[in-house]
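User: hey, got a sec? need Translation initiation factor eIF2B subunit beta folded
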Amino acid sequence: MSLPKALESQVDSFVLKLKTRQIVGSYEVAKETAMILRQAVSTTRWFNVDLLIEFISNLGARLVAAQPKELAVGNIVRRVLKIIREVARGELSQANEEQTRNTEEYSEEDDVEEELSSEETNIKVNNTLAEQSFLSQSSMFNLLSDGPVVKNSDEIKNTYNLKPLIIQEINEEIIADLESVYKGIADQATDFIHANEVIMTIGKSRTVEEFLIRAAHKRRFQVLVAETSPTYQGHEMACKLAAAGIDTTVISDSAIFAAMPRVNKVVLGSHAVLANGGLVAVTGSHLIAAAAKHHSTPVLVCTALYKLSPLFAYDSDTFNVTVSPHNVLHYQEGLITDKVSVSNPYYDYVKPELVSLFIHNLGSAPPTYVYRLINDNYDQEDTTL
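Assistant: Yep! Here you go:
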């Protein structure tokens, strides 16, 4: 199958944005991926579920290859594939129940109809088998056909009935879920943030921001925000929290360990959560989690379910991104830059041993429970796209 021109243009534009990192952030990436896949299901011609699954898998692999570090792309593709399989299984189960019911009703009828003789039945069966064999073996027929052979109009009708069901599930299970994900996490804030506590966070995360602001509606507490050099995202985060009336203090990254004994909880955002319960988060997250582990301070991670990935990180650089070192060491300092090698990683990998609890939009779970959440959201056949 080929993409319609309008969809092909949209896919090319999205791929370009991913390659050049014009679109950054799990939420925006996930939302646009879901829109493209919904349009792909809606506008393309497909004849059965297997053909659709193959098409979505190929399209998803193309999007993932554009920016492998944005794990949200692959996560949304896997969610869509699971929805397609579940809708197909439900339709098949309903069809089997109908067939069983019709068979039982037919067996109870008292009307006796004239049946074909055994010779005529055998001849028809042999002719049907010969026709199927010829169609499956004819290379010219397979070459010219747009899809698998459909025997009757009922099969066509049942196949195309799946399209609106799949689109409806994508709208309800993925796109609507993305729009309410921040509210689902923020609603749990008062269960974890208590009065007069000192909370430490790092970087700028919309999920953590709304989580803390919601808690501030009923609790009074203090927040320490690490500045997150060299991007200094912590400054922007501190401004947002202070504007919401929260007592906020900005600290340098080097002061994290020294300030940790005063801290009651650490609240982190996430870029992705891996299958082993590990975390990919903004640079400095490993430092703050390790310091919290040393001082026995609980580490809470606010993350959405669409950030859960069935992939593993075999080392700390597997899903990392290295950006321009200009903010660390200016290019104008040529005498120094010629003699040193400067690396500026954008993310940190945080081991599951350093995380106490994940707070997601449907509840909370420890790192050891992440594999169950992944099994609930993805099909094992789609682990590798």
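Quick note: The domain at 181-382 is CATH 3.40.50.10470 (Rossmann fold). Let me know if you need anything else on Translation initiation factor eIF2B subunit beta.
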